[in-house]
TrEMBL record:
Protein name per the record: Probable cytosol aminopeptidase
Top enzyme class: hydrolase
Active-site residues from the entry: K269, R343
Positions bound to Mn(2+) 2: K257, D262, D280, E341
Subcellular location: Cytoplasm
Protein source organism: Allomeiothermus silvanus (strain ATCC 700542 / DSM 9946 / NBRC 106475 / NCIMB 13440 / VI-R2)
Keywords: Aminopeptidase, Cytoplasm, Hydrolase, Manganese, Metal-binding, Protease
Gene Ontology MF annotations: manganese ion binding; metalloaminopeptidase activity
Cofactor note: Binds 2 manganese ions per subunit.
Reaction(s) catalysed by this chain's protein: Release of an N-terminal amino acid, Xaa-|-Yaa-, in which Xaa is preferably Leu, but may be other amino acids including Pro although not Arg or Lys, and Yaa may be Pro. Amino acid amides and methyl esters are also readily hydrolyzed, but rates on arylamides are exceedingly low; Release of an N-terminal amino acid, preferentially leucine, but not glutamic or aspartic acids
Enzyme Commission no: 3.4.11.1, 3.4.11.10
GO CC annotation, single: cytoplasm
Sequence similarity: Belongs to the peptidase M17 family.
Cofactor: Mn(2+)
Amino acid sequence: MEIRLKSARRYVEEIPTRLRVVGVWGGELTEGGQRLATREQITQMMEELKFRGDFGETLLLPVSASGGNEPEFVMLFGLGAKKRGVSLETVRKAGAKLVAAITKLGFKEAVTETFLAEKFGKKEASYALAEGAILGAYEFKKYKSDPEVKRLRLWLARSSGPAVDRAEIVAEAVNYARDLVNEPPNVLTPAELAERARELGRETGLQVMVWDERQIQQEGMGAFYGVAQGSANPPRFIQITYKPRGKPSRVLAYVGKGLTFDTGGYSLKPSESMTTMKSDMAGAAAVMGAMRAIARIGPNAEVRAYIAAAENMVSGSAYRVSDVLKSLSGKTIEVMNTDAEGRLTLADALTYADREGAEAIVELSTLTGACVVALGQGIAGLFATDDRLGKEVQEAALRAGEQVWPLPLEEDYRELLKSTTADLKNVSGARHGGAIMAGLFLSEFTEKPLVHLDIAGPAYTTNPHSLGPAGGTGFGVRTLVEMVAPGIAEE
Protein backbone atom coordinates (compact mmCIF):
# COMPACT_ATOMS: atom_id res chain seq x y z
CA MET A 1 0.00 0.00 0.00
CA GLU A 2 1.21 3.47 -0.80
CA ILE A 3 0.37 5.87 2.00
CA ARG A 4 0.94 9.61 2.26
CA LEU A 5 0.55 11.30 5.60
CA LYS A 6 -0.36 14.97 5.79
CA SER A 7 0.02 16.82 9.06
CA ALA A 8 -2.51 19.58 9.73
CA ARG A 9 -3.06 22.03 12.55
CA ARG A 10 -6.75 22.23 11.71
CA TYR A 11 -9.51 20.19 13.36
CA VAL A 12 -11.16 17.16 11.77
CA GLU A 13 -14.26 19.04 10.69
CA GLU A 14 -12.19 21.74 8.97
CA ILE A 15 -10.49 19.42 6.47
CA PRO A 16 -12.68 18.69 3.41
CA THR A 17 -12.74 14.93 2.80
CA ARG A 18 -15.52 12.41 2.34
CA LEU A 19 -14.38 10.39 5.35
CA ARG A 20 -13.74 11.76 8.82
CA VAL A 21 -12.47 9.46 11.57
CA VAL A 22 -13.06 10.10 15.27
CA GLY A 23 -12.28 7.96 18.26
CA VAL A 24 -14.54 6.31 20.79
CA TRP A 25 -12.83 5.77 24.12
CA GLY A 26 -14.61 4.23 27.07
CA GLY A 27 -17.85 4.28 25.10
CA GLU A 28 -17.73 8.03 24.51
CA LEU A 29 -16.69 10.24 21.63
CA THR A 30 -13.22 11.68 22.06
CA GLU A 31 -12.36 15.35 21.69
CA GLY A 32 -12.42 15.23 17.87
CA GLY A 33 -15.92 13.75 17.84
CA GLN A 34 -17.26 16.22 20.37
CA ARG A 35 -16.50 19.09 17.98
CA LEU A 36 -18.52 17.66 15.07
CA ALA A 37 -21.76 19.44 14.25
CA THR A 38 -23.38 16.01 13.86
CA ARG A 39 -22.21 14.71 17.27
CA GLU A 40 -25.75 14.41 18.65
CA GLN A 41 -26.84 12.44 15.60
CA ILE A 42 -23.74 10.23 15.90
CA THR A 43 -24.24 9.65 19.63
CA GLN A 44 -27.84 8.60 19.04
CA MET A 45 -26.82 6.14 16.35
CA MET A 46 -24.11 4.72 18.63
CA GLU A 47 -26.75 4.04 21.27
CA GLU A 48 -29.21 2.53 18.80
CA LEU A 49 -26.58 0.26 17.27
CA LYS A 50 -25.01 -0.53 20.66
CA PHE A 51 -21.56 0.46 19.45
CA ARG A 52 -19.21 0.20 22.44
CA GLY A 53 -15.93 1.07 20.79
CA ASP A 54 -13.90 -2.01 21.58
CA PHE A 55 -10.32 -1.58 20.40
CA GLY A 56 -10.16 -1.65 16.61
CA GLU A 57 -13.94 -1.86 16.22
CA THR A 58 -15.29 0.49 13.56
CA LEU A 59 -18.68 1.88 12.59
CA LEU A 60 -19.23 3.76 9.32
CA LEU A 61 -22.02 6.31 9.45
CA PRO A 62 -23.43 8.50 6.67
CA VAL A 63 -23.95 12.06 7.87
CA SER A 64 -25.53 15.17 6.45
CA ALA A 65 -23.38 16.58 3.65
CA SER A 66 -22.05 20.10 4.07
CA GLY A 67 -22.51 20.80 0.38
CA GLY A 68 -22.39 19.19 -3.06
CA ASN A 69 -23.91 15.92 -4.24
CA GLU A 70 -21.45 13.50 -2.64
CA PRO A 71 -22.47 11.96 0.70
CA GLU A 72 -20.11 12.32 3.65
CA PHE A 73 -19.18 9.69 6.19
CA VAL A 74 -17.89 9.52 9.73
CA MET A 75 -16.01 6.44 10.85
CA LEU A 76 -16.08 5.74 14.56
CA PHE A 77 -12.91 3.99 15.64
CA GLY A 78 -12.85 2.10 18.93
CA LEU A 79 -9.95 2.78 21.29
CA GLY A 80 -11.16 0.42 23.99
CA ALA A 81 -11.98 1.03 27.62
CA LYS A 82 -10.50 3.71 29.84
CA LYS A 83 -8.37 1.42 31.96
CA ARG A 84 -4.86 0.97 33.21
CA GLY A 85 -2.41 -0.19 30.57
CA VAL A 86 -3.49 2.26 27.90
CA SER A 87 -0.25 3.60 26.44
CA LEU A 88 1.20 5.11 23.30
CA GLU A 89 1.37 1.56 21.98
CA THR A 90 -2.44 1.71 21.89
CA VAL A 91 -2.20 4.73 19.57
CA ARG A 92 0.49 3.07 17.44
CA LYS A 93 -1.59 -0.08 16.97
CA ALA A 94 -4.67 2.06 16.30
CA GLY A 95 -2.81 3.71 13.42
CA ALA A 96 -2.11 0.35 11.83
CA LYS A 97 -5.66 -0.92 12.27
CA LEU A 98 -7.14 2.34 11.01
CA VAL A 99 -5.26 2.21 7.71
CA ALA A 100 -6.49 -1.33 7.10
CA ALA A 101 -10.08 -0.37 7.89
CA ILE A 102 -10.10 2.68 5.60
CA THR A 103 -8.57 0.92 2.61
CA LYS A 104 -10.89 -2.07 3.03
CA LEU A 105 -13.81 0.30 2.51
CA GLY A 106 -12.22 1.69 -0.66
CA PHE A 107 -11.55 5.25 0.50
CA LYS A 108 -8.44 6.86 -0.98
CA GLU A 109 -8.44 9.91 1.25
CA ALA A 110 -9.50 10.51 4.83
CA VAL A 111 -8.86 12.69 7.85
CA THR A 112 -8.46 11.34 11.35
CA GLU A 113 -8.15 13.02 14.68
CA THR A 114 -4.86 12.39 16.49
CA PHE A 115 -6.07 9.75 18.92
CA LEU A 116 -5.63 10.39 22.65
CA ALA A 117 -3.60 13.56 22.18
CA GLU A 118 -5.40 14.95 25.21
CA LYS A 119 -3.94 12.12 27.31
CA PHE A 120 -0.39 11.74 25.97
CA GLY A 121 0.31 15.12 24.38
CA LYS A 122 0.09 16.20 20.75
CA LYS A 123 3.68 15.42 19.78
CA GLU A 124 3.75 11.98 21.35
CA ALA A 125 0.35 10.94 20.01
CA SER A 126 1.15 12.33 16.55
CA TYR A 127 4.37 10.33 16.43
CA ALA A 128 2.78 7.06 17.53
CA LEU A 129 -0.23 7.38 15.22
CA ALA A 130 1.89 8.25 12.18
CA GLU A 131 4.39 5.48 12.86
CA GLY A 132 1.63 2.92 13.30
CA ALA A 133 -0.10 3.99 10.09
CA ILE A 134 3.07 3.61 7.99
CA LEU A 135 4.02 0.30 9.59
CA GLY A 136 0.49 -1.01 9.20
CA ALA A 137 0.39 -0.05 5.51
CA TYR A 138 3.48 -2.15 4.71
CA GLU A 139 3.22 -4.85 2.06
CA PHE A 140 5.84 -6.94 0.26
CA LYS A 141 4.56 -7.69 -3.24
CA LYS A 142 7.79 -7.36 -5.21
CA TYR A 143 7.55 -10.84 -6.68
CA LYS A 144 3.80 -10.88 -7.40
CA SER A 145 3.12 -10.92 -11.15
CA ASP A 146 0.10 -8.61 -10.91
CA PRO A 147 0.03 -6.90 -7.52
CA GLU A 148 -2.85 -4.68 -6.51
CA VAL A 149 -1.49 -1.39 -5.18
CA LYS A 150 -3.83 0.54 -2.92
CA ARG A 151 -3.20 4.22 -2.26
CA LEU A 152 -4.29 6.35 0.66
CA ARG A 153 -3.78 9.97 1.63
CA LEU A 154 -4.39 10.36 5.34
CA TRP A 155 -4.64 13.74 7.05
CA LEU A 156 -3.71 13.82 10.74
CA ALA A 157 -5.74 16.63 12.25
CA ARG A 158 -4.34 18.75 15.06
CA SER A 159 -1.00 16.95 14.76
CA SER A 160 2.64 17.91 15.26
CA GLY A 161 4.43 18.28 11.94
CA PRO A 162 7.95 17.58 13.29
CA ALA A 163 6.69 14.49 15.11
CA VAL A 164 5.02 13.17 11.96
CA ASP A 165 8.17 13.87 9.94
CA ARG A 166 10.33 11.91 12.38
CA ALA A 167 7.82 9.05 12.49
CA GLU A 168 7.98 8.82 8.71
CA ILE A 169 11.79 8.59 8.77
CA VAL A 170 11.85 5.87 11.41
CA ALA A 171 8.90 3.84 10.08
CA GLU A 172 10.26 3.90 6.54
CA ALA A 173 13.57 2.63 7.95
CA VAL A 174 11.72 -0.23 9.64
CA ASN A 175 10.00 -1.05 6.33
CA TYR A 176 13.39 -0.92 4.60
CA ALA A 177 14.63 -3.56 7.04
CA ARG A 178 11.48 -5.60 6.45
CA ASP A 179 12.14 -5.53 2.71
CA LEU A 180 15.63 -6.92 3.24
CA VAL A 181 14.38 -9.75 5.45
CA ASN A 182 11.58 -10.64 3.04
CA GLU A 183 13.87 -10.94 0.02
CA PRO A 184 14.30 -14.57 -1.11
CA PRO A 185 17.74 -16.04 -0.35
CA ASN A 186 18.57 -16.69 -4.01
CA VAL A 187 18.34 -12.91 -4.49
CA LEU A 188 19.77 -11.59 -1.23
CA THR A 189 23.14 -13.35 -1.16
CA PRO A 190 26.02 -11.93 0.92
CA ALA A 191 27.28 -10.07 -2.15
CA GLU A 192 23.83 -8.60 -2.81
CA LEU A 193 23.46 -7.52 0.82
CA ALA A 194 26.79 -5.73 0.44
CA GLU A 195 25.53 -4.05 -2.72
CA ARG A 196 22.40 -2.89 -0.87
CA ALA A 197 24.72 -1.36 1.73
CA ARG A 198 26.60 0.47 -1.01
CA GLU A 199 23.29 1.76 -2.39
CA LEU A 200 22.39 2.93 1.12
CA GLY A 201 25.66 4.82 1.29
CA ARG A 202 25.09 6.50 -2.06
CA GLU A 203 21.56 7.49 -1.05
CA THR A 204 22.32 8.84 2.43
CA GLY A 205 25.97 9.86 2.41
CA LEU A 206 26.99 7.13 4.86
CA GLN A 207 30.52 5.78 4.49
CA VAL A 208 30.49 2.15 3.33
CA MET A 209 33.37 -0.30 3.01
CA VAL A 210 33.06 -3.94 1.95
CA TRP A 211 35.66 -6.70 2.24
CA ASP A 212 35.54 -9.74 -0.05
CA GLU A 213 36.50 -13.28 0.95
CA ARG A 214 40.20 -12.71 0.33
CA GLN A 215 40.34 -9.67 2.60
CA ILE A 216 38.32 -11.51 5.25
CA GLN A 217 40.91 -14.29 5.28
CA GLN A 218 43.86 -11.91 5.19
CA GLU A 219 42.54 -10.03 8.22
CA GLY A 220 42.40 -13.26 10.20
CA MET A 221 38.65 -13.65 10.56
CA GLY A 222 38.90 -17.43 10.78
CA ALA A 223 35.69 -18.02 12.72
CA PHE A 224 33.64 -15.98 10.24
CA TYR A 225 35.29 -17.52 7.19
CA GLY A 226 34.97 -21.01 8.63
CA VAL A 227 31.18 -20.68 8.53
CA ALA A 228 31.20 -19.15 5.04
CA GLN A 229 33.58 -21.55 3.32
CA GLY A 230 30.96 -24.14 2.42
CA SER A 231 28.89 -21.88 0.15
CA ALA A 232 29.29 -21.10 -3.54
CA ASN A 233 28.18 -17.56 -2.61
CA PRO A 234 31.24 -15.97 -0.95
CA PRO A 235 31.04 -13.90 2.25
CA ARG A 236 31.24 -10.16 2.63
CA PHE A 237 32.23 -8.05 5.63
CA ILE A 238 30.24 -4.81 5.57
CA GLN A 239 31.19 -1.64 7.43
CA ILE A 240 28.87 1.39 7.50
CA THR A 241 29.80 4.61 9.29
CA TYR A 242 27.82 7.69 10.26
CA LYS A 243 29.82 10.70 11.45
CA PRO A 244 28.28 13.91 12.78
CA ARG A 245 29.52 17.27 11.58
CA GLY A 246 31.08 18.24 14.89
CA LYS A 247 32.93 16.33 17.55
CA PRO A 248 30.87 13.23 18.40
CA SER A 249 29.37 12.90 21.85
CA ARG A 250 30.16 9.17 21.81
CA VAL A 251 31.23 6.38 19.46
CA LEU A 252 28.87 3.41 19.30
CA ALA A 253 29.10 0.19 17.29
CA TYR A 254 26.04 -1.67 16.03
CA VAL A 255 26.71 -5.28 14.99
CA GLY A 256 24.09 -7.32 13.13
CA LYS A 257 24.07 -11.03 12.34
CA GLY A 258 24.11 -11.42 8.56
CA LEU A 259 23.39 -15.07 7.70
CA THR A 260 21.48 -14.64 4.45
CA PHE A 261 20.54 -18.32 4.60
CA ASP A 262 21.19 -20.98 7.22
CA THR A 263 20.81 -24.68 6.49
CA GLY A 264 22.45 -25.57 9.80
CA GLY A 265 25.45 -26.93 7.91
CA TYR A 266 26.28 -30.56 8.67
CA SER A 267 24.20 -30.22 11.84
CA LEU A 268 21.36 -29.98 9.34
CA LYS A 269 18.07 -28.35 10.25
CA PRO A 270 14.78 -30.17 9.58
CA SER A 271 13.04 -28.91 6.43
CA GLU A 272 10.27 -27.17 8.39
CA SER A 273 12.86 -25.24 10.39
CA MET A 274 14.55 -24.04 7.22
CA THR A 275 11.50 -22.31 5.77
CA THR A 276 12.14 -19.10 7.69
CA MET A 277 15.93 -19.11 7.49
CA LYS A 278 16.07 -16.31 4.95
CA SER A 279 15.36 -14.22 8.05
CA ASP A 280 18.62 -15.20 9.74
CA MET A 281 20.01 -11.85 8.63
CA ALA A 282 17.33 -9.86 10.46
CA GLY A 283 19.95 -8.43 12.80
CA ALA A 284 21.88 -7.07 9.83
CA ALA A 285 18.66 -5.69 8.34
CA ALA A 286 17.83 -3.91 11.61
CA VAL A 287 21.29 -2.35 11.76
CA MET A 288 21.08 -1.17 8.14
CA GLY A 289 17.58 0.21 8.68
CA ALA A 290 18.74 2.06 11.77
CA MET A 291 21.71 3.55 9.92
CA ARG A 292 19.34 4.76 7.21
CA ALA A 293 17.24 6.65 9.77
CA ILE A 294 20.27 7.92 11.72
CA ALA A 295 21.75 9.44 8.57
CA ARG A 296 18.53 11.37 8.00
CA ILE A 297 17.99 12.51 11.59
CA GLY A 298 21.62 13.55 12.11
CA PRO A 299 22.39 12.90 15.80
CA ASN A 300 25.63 14.00 17.45
CA ALA A 301 26.91 10.46 18.11
CA GLU A 302 29.22 8.57 15.75
CA VAL A 303 27.74 5.20 14.84
CA ARG A 304 29.61 2.36 13.16
CA ALA A 305 27.80 -0.70 11.84
CA TYR A 306 29.41 -4.08 11.17
CA ILE A 307 27.89 -7.05 9.36
CA ALA A 308 29.56 -10.40 8.70
CA ALA A 309 27.41 -11.63 5.79
CA ALA A 310 27.57 -15.31 4.85
CA GLU A 311 25.60 -18.44 4.03
CA ASN A 312 25.81 -21.60 6.14
CA MET A 313 25.65 -24.38 3.56
CA VAL A 314 26.55 -28.04 3.14
CA SER A 315 29.29 -29.00 0.65
CA GLY A 316 32.65 -30.72 0.39
CA SER A 317 34.30 -27.53 1.61
CA ALA A 318 31.90 -26.80 4.48
CA TYR A 319 33.15 -26.73 8.03
CA ARG A 320 32.51 -29.77 10.20
CA VAL A 321 31.80 -30.75 13.78
CA SER A 322 35.15 -31.04 15.62
CA ASP A 323 36.88 -28.49 13.36
CA VAL A 324 38.96 -25.92 15.22
CA LEU A 325 38.71 -22.31 14.00
CA LYS A 326 41.03 -19.47 14.94
CA SER A 327 39.13 -16.25 15.53
CA LEU A 328 40.29 -12.70 14.88
CA SER A 329 40.87 -12.32 18.62
CA GLY A 330 43.38 -15.17 18.53
CA LYS A 331 41.13 -17.46 20.56
CA THR A 332 40.54 -20.91 19.08
CA ILE A 333 37.07 -22.44 18.91
CA GLU A 334 36.13 -26.09 18.68
CA VAL A 335 32.99 -26.53 16.58
CA MET A 336 30.55 -28.76 18.43
CA ASN A 337 27.52 -27.83 16.33
CA THR A 338 27.61 -26.25 12.86
CA ASP A 339 24.11 -24.85 13.43
CA ALA A 340 25.55 -22.57 16.11
CA GLU A 341 27.17 -20.59 13.32
CA GLY A 342 25.90 -17.09 14.02
CA ARG A 343 27.97 -16.68 17.16
CA LEU A 344 31.09 -17.63 15.17
CA THR A 345 30.54 -14.92 12.57
CA LEU A 346 29.66 -12.43 15.31
CA ALA A 347 32.78 -13.27 17.31
CA ASP A 348 35.03 -11.80 14.63
CA ALA A 349 32.71 -8.84 13.98
CA LEU A 350 32.70 -7.98 17.70
CA THR A 351 36.46 -8.19 17.96
CA TYR A 352 36.85 -5.94 14.94
CA ALA A 353 34.35 -3.39 16.32
CA ASP A 354 36.29 -3.38 19.59
CA ARG A 355 39.64 -2.82 17.84
CA GLU A 356 38.23 0.00 15.72
CA GLY A 357 37.60 2.04 18.85
CA ALA A 358 33.94 1.60 19.76
CA GLU A 359 33.17 2.81 23.27
CA ALA A 360 30.26 0.38 23.52
CA ILE A 361 28.68 -2.26 21.31
CA VAL A 362 25.05 -3.23 20.72
CA GLU A 363 24.62 -6.46 18.78
CA LEU A 364 21.40 -7.94 17.35
CA SER A 365 20.99 -11.51 16.16
CA THR A 366 18.42 -14.19 15.57
CA LEU A 367 20.61 -16.41 17.68
CA THR A 368 18.81 -19.07 19.71
CA GLY A 369 15.58 -21.00 19.77
CA ALA A 370 16.10 -21.15 23.53
CA CYS A 371 15.33 -17.44 23.78
CA VAL A 372 12.07 -17.95 21.89
CA VAL A 373 11.14 -20.74 24.32
CA ALA A 374 11.89 -18.46 27.26
CA LEU A 375 10.23 -15.23 26.06
CA GLY A 376 7.93 -16.14 23.18
CA GLN A 377 7.80 -14.58 19.74
CA GLY A 378 7.13 -10.99 20.79
CA ILE A 379 10.01 -10.25 23.14
CA ALA A 380 13.78 -10.07 22.60
CA GLY A 381 16.24 -11.23 25.22
CA LEU A 382 18.70 -8.60 26.47
CA PHE A 383 22.09 -9.70 27.79
CA ALA A 384 24.46 -7.01 29.06
CA THR A 385 28.04 -7.11 30.26
CA ASP A 386 27.55 -3.59 31.59
CA ASP A 387 24.49 -2.70 33.69
CA ARG A 388 24.49 0.93 32.65
CA LEU A 389 24.49 0.12 28.93
CA GLY A 390 21.90 -2.59 29.45
CA LYS A 391 19.57 -0.15 31.18
CA GLU A 392 20.12 2.43 28.42
CA VAL A 393 19.12 -0.06 25.72
CA GLN A 394 16.16 -1.30 27.72
CA GLU A 395 14.85 2.24 28.26
CA ALA A 396 15.35 3.09 24.57
CA ALA A 397 13.35 0.00 23.61
CA LEU A 398 10.56 0.97 26.00
CA ARG A 399 10.32 4.48 24.51
CA ALA A 400 10.44 3.05 20.99
CA GLY A 401 7.66 0.55 21.62
CA GLU A 402 9.76 -2.61 21.21
CA GLN A 403 9.70 -5.28 23.91
CA VAL A 404 12.98 -6.53 25.38
CA TRP A 405 13.59 -8.35 28.64
CA PRO A 406 16.88 -8.60 30.56
CA LEU A 407 18.31 -12.07 31.13
CA PRO A 408 21.46 -12.90 33.12
CA LEU A 409 24.95 -13.73 31.92
CA GLU A 410 25.57 -16.25 34.68
CA GLU A 411 29.34 -16.44 35.19
CA ASP A 412 29.24 -19.94 36.66
CA TYR A 413 27.99 -21.23 33.30
CA ARG A 414 31.10 -19.97 31.50
CA GLU A 415 33.01 -23.09 32.53
CA LEU A 416 30.72 -25.12 30.24
CA LEU A 417 32.18 -23.35 27.19
CA LYS A 418 35.72 -24.54 27.85
CA SER A 419 37.11 -27.05 25.37
CA THR A 420 39.73 -29.74 26.00
CA THR A 421 40.96 -29.25 22.41
CA ALA A 422 40.73 -25.49 21.89
CA ASP A 423 40.14 -22.40 24.01
CA LEU A 424 36.36 -22.52 23.64
CA LYS A 425 33.48 -24.63 22.33
CA ASN A 426 30.76 -22.91 20.30
CA VAL A 427 28.07 -24.70 22.33
CA SER A 428 28.16 -26.13 25.83
CA GLY A 429 26.49 -29.44 25.02
CA ALA A 430 24.03 -28.95 27.88
CA ARG A 431 20.30 -28.77 27.15
CA HIS A 432 19.68 -25.90 29.56
CA GLY A 433 20.51 -22.20 29.37
CA GLY A 434 21.11 -22.08 25.63
CA ALA A 435 20.42 -18.37 25.23
CA ILE A 436 22.65 -17.52 28.19
CA MET A 437 25.47 -19.70 26.86
CA ALA A 438 25.29 -17.90 23.50
CA GLY A 439 25.54 -14.54 25.24
CA LEU A 440 28.49 -15.70 27.32
CA PHE A 441 30.25 -16.94 24.20
CA LEU A 442 29.87 -13.55 22.49
CA SER A 443 31.16 -11.73 25.56
CA GLU A 444 34.48 -13.56 25.14
CA PHE A 445 35.31 -11.46 22.08
CA THR A 446 35.22 -7.89 23.39
CA GLU A 447 36.30 -6.08 26.54
CA LYS A 448 34.03 -3.13 25.76
CA PRO A 449 30.54 -2.78 27.27
CA LEU A 450 28.32 -5.09 25.23
CA VAL A 451 24.58 -5.58 24.90
CA HIS A 452 23.49 -8.67 23.00
CA LEU A 453 19.87 -8.63 21.83
CA ASP A 454 18.60 -12.08 20.88
CA ILE A 455 15.80 -11.21 18.46
CA ALA A 456 15.05 -14.76 17.29
CA GLY A 457 11.44 -14.42 18.45
CA PRO A 458 10.25 -10.99 17.29
CA ALA A 459 12.34 -10.61 14.10
CA TYR A 460 10.06 -12.69 11.89
CA THR A 461 6.48 -13.88 12.11
CA THR A 462 4.52 -16.39 10.07
CA ASN A 463 1.23 -14.65 10.90
CA PRO A 464 0.01 -11.05 10.59
CA HIS A 465 0.64 -9.00 13.72
CA SER A 466 -0.62 -5.75 15.21
CA LEU A 467 1.79 -3.57 13.20
CA GLY A 468 1.98 -5.39 9.90
CA PRO A 469 1.74 -8.55 7.83
CA ALA A 470 3.53 -11.86 8.18
CA GLY A 471 7.24 -11.85 7.40
CA GLY A 472 10.07 -9.63 8.60
CA THR A 473 9.08 -7.17 11.32
CA GLY A 474 12.08 -4.84 11.29
CA PHE A 475 12.43 -5.37 15.03
CA GLY A 476 15.31 -3.45 16.57
CA VAL A 477 15.41 -0.51 14.18
CA ARG A 478 13.37 1.76 16.43
CA THR A 479 15.41 0.89 19.52
CA LEU A 480 18.75 1.54 17.82
CA VAL A 481 17.56 4.89 16.49
CA GLU A 482 16.14 5.90 19.87
CA MET A 483 19.47 5.15 21.54
CA VAL A 484 21.40 7.80 19.61
CA ALA A 485 18.57 10.18 18.65
CA PRO A 486 16.11 10.12 21.54
CA GLY A 487 12.83 11.97 21.64
CA ILE A 488 10.64 13.89 19.25
CA ALA A 489 11.75 17.15 17.67
CA GLU A 490 10.33 20.26 19.25
CA GLU A 491 7.88 22.32 17.29
